[in-house]
Each structure stands twice: as C-alpha cells, then as structure tokens.
Design goal:
By secondary structure, the protein is mostly helical. It has helices at about 5-15, 20-25, 30-35, 45-55; strands spanning about 60, 70-75.
Length: about 80
C-alpha cells in the first residue's frame, strides 16, 4: 500500500498538514499521526482513504524500484 514516509512526503509536496489529510481522507487525526510516526498501521479502509485522498490531490506513489519507494506530483493538465 503506502508507507509512513510516503505519506509524510506526499503531504510535504501538497503543503498539507496532518489535519488537512485527515479531513480529506475522512479519518481521525490520531489515525494519520500514529501512522506517520510508525506507531500503528491503520485499518485497511482507513489506509486506503489516506492513499486515495493524496492521489486525488495529485500525488503519484512510486513503487519500490531498488532505490526505495517514493512519491511525486502529477503534471498539471
């Protein structure tokens, strides 16, 4: 799915706070905080909500390629 580091990086690219991500993903703020700090992995539907919210805002998740997983922004159309 996505890693805590990818979530943090994606928020950085979007200039979103954890609160903004939680609101966009329809999850609790503690869910985002705990996930990004590596305290716990959210329930599948909550993690999917986080990923979907970031993708809807223009983030592309780059899979592991030997150098590590990453994120980038979609080109403006």
């Amino acid at each position: 799915m996505i890693s805590p580091a990818q979530s943090r990086a994606a928020r950085g690219l979007l200039e979103w706070s954890q609160e903004q991500l939680a609101q966009a993903a329809h999850v609790g703020l503690s869910t985002v905080r705990d996930f990004e700090k590596g305290r716990r992995t959210p329930a599948h539907n909550n993690l999917l909500g986080i990923k979907t919210a970031l993708e809807a805002a223009g983030v592309i998740f780059v899979p592991e390629n030997g150098e590590g997983a990453g994120v980038r922004l979609r080109k403006a159309r």
